[in-house]
Amino acid sequence: MSEKDQADLAAMEKTDEPDLDRGMVEAWAAKMISNPDRAYRATFYVATIFFLVTTLFPFYWLLMVALTPRNRLSSVGVLTPGGFNPGAFVEIFTTLPFHRYIFNSFLIAVVATVIVLFVASLAGYVFGRLRFRAKNVLLLSVLVTSFFPPAAFFVPLNRLFNRNIDILRPLMQDGSLYNTPYAIFIPLSALYLPLSIFILMTFYSQIPDGLEDAARVEGTTRLGALFRIIVPLSAPGVATAGVLTFITVYNEYFFSSLMTDGRPQSWAPMLEGILRFQGEFEVLFNLMAAASIVAVLPVAILVIVAQEKIVSGLTAGAVKE
Amino acid sequence: MASVTLQDITKQYEDVTAVDDMNLEIRDGEFITFVGPSGCGKSTTMETIAGLTLPTEGSISIGERDVTDLPPKDRGISMVFQNIALFPHMDVYENVSFGLRLRKYDQEEIDRRVDQAADIVQLEGMMDRMPKEMSGGQRQRVAIARAIVREPDVFLMDEPLANLDAELRVHMRTQLQRLHRELDTTIIYVTHDQAQAMTMSDRIVVINGGVLQQVAPPLECYNEPANRFVAGFIGSPAMNFLEGEVVDGGFESEYTNIDFDPGTHGVSPGQEITVGVRPEDVFLEEDSHKAASPTKAFDAVVDVLEPMGKEMNAYLLFDREVEASAEGRGKGQLLINLVPDTDIEEGDDIRIVMDRENIHLFDRASGDAITHSLE
């Protein structure tokens, strides 16, 4: 071993080496390597700041815009509003029936979520718990359908929903689904079904067979066992699938705007309502901002509620495998 | 209270036959045990009785009813599972009353029956516990309470004690026998543990490879096994088998020969047979008075001694040239059962005798029993 090697070894054994001539970055990197916890903390702060800037700051700025009176919109600052006018949050309901738009979107999202959870539960049960031929082919085709761009379905669906269908006459005034909530939640439920099927399939497949057998012996049908035992025990999965579906449908614009004429009584959705604050000569940015904030509330409430419902680890310990 | 009849039950999975043409009559009020090695089809048979799987062929009746195509809930059965299978999101009361609530019993009746069941399995005061807060034995008792609360015609138990520790298992075994006496219901019990089968059952159903081997009371299976499989499976430690051939004066194998008259025992010279003798029917030569009818003495070498407290197992080799097999008892090896204070050491040369009254002969090709005594 040469003298140089020995000197290097001696340097490696020393933990702090203040006399070593290193650049600032190099010294910093050395410190991070010897103390990885600091590196993790630094990464955490970077990620947090990035999240705050990209996600929460626009939301904050939305609030600033909403609070700025209409005539001072040009002077809205980056961190402070250009005045104080909380009246915008009332005005959005008086200028337009914005509550109706929100109600439309909310109802459509709720119905779509219920449909998706029900159908995806049945499909998830079959794919997750039964063995049958062509299972993988079927599963794959469900997956592939979800890859299609929604626009691919739009033209045929729009033609179909604009047609007068005689058997629907007792239900709809003119026998056409255009301008009804059906025209929105039917295609949206179908589009967002595959994702929920996959989520629920994974959860349902993990419930031990013994529990289902026990339920069936005790007096349920297979379907009864699904809804009384398997679904409650998969609560986290059901909540996840439900929240995802609700949020996607609630925020959906493409189908919802094209399947109605945009009037609130035609079941136009919330996004359509926000855009309605754009007049012929003037864009009411402060009202649009206020409306956007109000529109976020149902989703925010839902997520908070669902989070409390998500109780995991229920199955732990009750079944010995 | 009902009898159960299986007629020509066959269950086929793609290319595996799990149960092969099974015919069985289970009497009203009987405690019957399906026993066999794992994968022998005993659980599948029980699942077809429960209705959890449908048989490929054959029919099942419970009492007078043909239940072959009925769903499990309409068969008048209840079941205790190996993995206990309590519903984790329900407390004890909800678990036990689940079936009654589904059947829309009125609240008073439900409470009365749940109380009664809880009393039988000693679960009072635990009604609002969650399954995960209970010990293995308590959970098992909840599962049993859930099964008895509906007062079923037939009780199915699929290895209910397999997941309990040894001490609790023995305790629950007597509990189950007491329960059977109290309820007087038909109980079908599945286990791979022949000790449970022996101790609890009115009759044992021995199954191997999906085929019924013997249906008989425990002692009959022990004393008069129908074939070599039953002989080897029932009884612990297992029976010794010596393979050889019938000659003019009796049986001859590489290490032993036993004198008997082939004609009177239904074999003929030249026939390949297996001799079976249980460890407890082999004695040291000086103890030969303990055998009802001792054979002549054989030489053997003591290989390994296993003192068990109330008895001692001795693994013998017929001569010093025999190599002890690593997998079970091989050729030239013999296991015998001795009283614990027998004065022998490992490596000793000893002489042993067998009890002719308890020597079994099996046909080598078919495995069927030919005789159960050489007297």
From TrEMBL, chain A:
Q: What parts of the sequence cross the membrane?
A: 42-63, 101-125, 137-161, 181-204, 225-250, 283-305
- Source domain of life is Archaea
Q: Where in the cell is it found?
A: Cell membrane
Record-linked InterPro entries: BP-dep_ABC_trans_perm, MetI-like, MetI-like_sf
Q: PROSITE patterns, from UniProt?
A: ABC_TM1
- Where does the ABC transmembrane type-1 domain start and stop, copy by copy? 102-306
What are the entry keywords? Cell membrane, Membrane, Transmembrane, Transmembrane helix, Transport
User: What CDD domains does the entry give?
Assistant: TM_PBP2
Query: GO cellular-component terms in the record?
Result: plasma membrane
What membrane topology term does the record carry? Multi-pass membrane protein
**Which terms does the UniProt entry file under GO BP?**
transmembrane transport
Family statement: Belongs to the binding-protein-dependent transport system permease family.
Q: What is this protein called?
A: Binding-protein-dependent transporters inner membrane component
